[in-house]
Amino acid sequence: MPDVISFARGAPAPEALDGDLIARCATEALADDPTVILSYGTGGGYPPLREWLAQHHGTTADHVLITNGSLEGYVFLLETFLSPGDLIALEAPTYDRAMLQAQLHGMEILSIPMQLDGLDVDALAAACEAGRVPKLVYTIPNFHNPAGTTISLEKRKALIALAERYDFWILEDDPYGRLRFEGDDIPGIYELAGPDRVMFSSSFSKTLAPGLRVGYLIAPPQLIGSLVKQANRTYISPAHLPEAAVYQVCAQGLLPANIARVTNLMHVRRDAMVDGLVHMPAGTICTPPEGGFFMWLELPEGMSADAMLQRAQEAGVIYVAGSACFVSGGANTLRLAYSGVSPDEITLGMERLGSVLNAG
Ligand SMILES: Cc1ncc(COP(=O)(O)O)c(C=O)c1O
């Protein structure tokens, strides 16, 4: 057992990373297409993968930008689609890096509370009604990071209707949606609304391997054209070898089996963490997610996850204090990632966490 068990990283466990699969696919990619892969490429990404992704999402390659991880596509959007001072709506809580980048790029943030079935569309409607209409709403629809929630079909439709009414864009960031343990898939927001209102981003970081750094964004062709130029100015072209390996995984039909394997690994971990909830202080609120990597805990009012982090670390367990995922507030919340550790580590980590929080 490691000295410190980390529930802090939203990364797949080592067992989820299939080195043999990637080695085989990278070798085949190089054998098939060595010159394109080993030369400077286009800013938009490895063309066959761009084409495959377009077909997978029912669109054309000029709608697709492949980036070195999906966060980079989001940052390009902040720099190209938005300007400093623009209003961006973020869920509260939201993915901490997305919030940090919005802040670093000088955006004004409209925080929209989260509910058990996803973002509070009525609160967003009230803000719009009051004249606070965002240019972009950034939402994580499935197995939210950090909240673990999935936005209901009704709310997806209501959000789209609101976007039509107030003429704002939605960015649906969905790296976890295919990692479902139970329940039924819900149609995506991009799928429901189409490309004139919604942009979509996803990643192979959670379904295949984060070290490959392959993510993508789907957006209108004119905007993608600007982003391709920006990519070109910044790094000439993204790394083509990992993209070509991912292409082989996808084109050979090997992705679904890998996703099923990773989903099973995550399911067992989620269950181990749910079992460990018995150690949490009385009054702790947690709704276990139906998929993905994260559990979100709300400690009884007055307890501070920030204040307890140091003691937790000394006791051999770490987490993300929920306050990192809010513009302000959230002191009594914390995010636990079960994704990166073994079920045994989860069991022990939850015991350690429980003893620290109960002593708190
Ligand atoms: C919601 C969300 N979006 C984007 C990312 C970034 O993923 P990538 O590794 O593709 O940059 C993450 C990673 O944790 C995430 O949770």
CATH superfamily assignment of the largest domain? Type I PLP-dependent aspartate aminotransferase-like (Major domain)
Molecules bound to protein: pyridoxal-5'-phosphate
Shape verdict: globular
* Biggest sheet architecture: 8 strands, mixed
DSSP strand content: 15-25%
| Uncertain runs | none
CATH-defined architecture of the largest domain? 3-Layer(aba) Sandwich
Question: Helix count, per DSSP?
Answer: 13
- Alpha-beta classification: alpha/beta
Order of helices and strands: EHHHEHEHEEHEHEHEEHHHEHEEEH
Indicate the mean pLDDT: 97
Key descriptive features of the protein:
360 residues; alpha/beta; Aspartate Aminotransferase, domain 1; 2 domains; eight-stranded mixed beta sheet; 13 helices
Model description:
The longest helix is centred in the C-terminal third of the chain and has 22 residues, at 255-276. Helices cover 42% and strands 15% of the residues. The strands form 3 sheets. An 8-stranded mixed sheet has the order 2-9-8-7-6-3-4-5, with helices on both faces. A 3-stranded antiparallel sheet has the order 10-13-12. It has 13 helices and 13 strands. The protein has 2 domains: 5-16 and 256-359, Aspartate Aminotransferase, domain 1 (Alpha-Beta Complex), CATH 3.90.1150; 19-251, Aspartate Aminotransferase, domain 2 (3-Layer(aba) Sandwich). It has helices spanning 19-32, 34-38, 47-56, 70-80, 96-104, 121-129, 153-166, 189-193, 221-235, 240-251, 255-276, 305-314, 343-359, and strands at residues 5-6, 64-67, 87-92, 108-115, 118-119, 136-139, 169-173, 198-203, 215-218, 294-298, 317-318, 320-321, 333-337. Helix 11 packs parallel to helix 13 (343-359). By secondary structure, it is of the alpha/beta class. Bound molecules: pyridoxal-5'-phosphate. Pyridoxal-5'-phosphate (PLP) binds next to helix 4.
